[in-house]
Amino acid sequence: MRGLLQEVHDRGPPSPEDESIAAHLMRVHDKAGKPLPHARQWSELSIFFYAGMETTAHSMAWCIYDISQHPDVERKVVQELDQLGLLATPERPTPRNIEYADLSRLTYLNCVIKESMRKRPVLPMLFRRAVKDVRIGPYLFPQGTIIEIHVLAMNTHPLYWDRPDDFLPKRWLEPDAMFAQPNPGTPSNATHNHKGTVKTAGIINITANASSAPISAPLKQASNTASRVTYCLFDIM
Ligand code: HEM
Q1: In terms of residue numbers, what domain contains 45?
Q2: Residue 50 included in any domain
Q3: Which tens digit of pLDDT belongs to each residue from 118-140?
Q4: Helix, strand, coil: what percent of the chain each, to 5?
Q5: Can you tell me the distance from the alpha carbon of 224 to that of 228, in angstroms, rounded to the nearest whole number?
Q6: Total domain count for the chain?
Q7: pTM, entire model
Q8: Is residue 80 part of a domain?
């Protein structure tokens, strides 16, 4: 990564047409006009690589595996690709290249990807540390508590999903699948995401709000073990 960054620097200032991440990082200056230090550019560039590549590669691999395990799903995916001229067939050995606009036309494939990511989120757990004492519902989390946001549990909990263990891409075609009702206090920009995202945003948002709210007795003292905290959150969702 350092070598790559050095190579980019050796090319000199990026041209205005250069829309690469490295070029954007090189254009960033602080108020005094100083560029982002090399170490910071390196760390930002690295995070894009590992946050972007592993996640995407694993999600794609699981998605292909899920398709391979469900012949009915595979048949529908193939049919959709064929209808859009994106499938190699004996009559069309060289299909056209996929275009950006195709992403919104591949309705069923989108559902398959969402369903695969629901069942096998590559980041199944996220963690936050309470920077202050924080109240969430009836629970008090002392400053320093590690709060686990259990994405996998939320994505497969029977409270939120019908037949959570089944691979059912068509559930994403239901009208309320894309526009789940946000929890009170959820930021409006989270309302147009899928259910899992809305719930996650809700939890994070509650944490943020509660840190500025008065913490009054009597409150249950939450254990600060990660699993306990997760299920406390389920109780109040
Ligand atoms: C299927 C693909 C992806 C999944 C499932 C995914 C998932 C996530 C999740 C859950 C987080 C939040 C982590 C947290 O707050 O604890 C995150 C953060 C992030 N993602 Fe992705 N992501 C994907 C693709 C990408 C791509 C393609 C890029 C960039 C090229 C990217 C860049 C980032 C960055 C920069 C962060 C913030 C990291 C930080 O806060 O330090 N992700 N991603």
Answers
A1: 1-12+20-27+35-62
A2: yes
A3: 999 999 988 888 899 988 777 78
A4: 50, 10, 40
A5: 7
A6: 2
A7: 0.74
A8: no
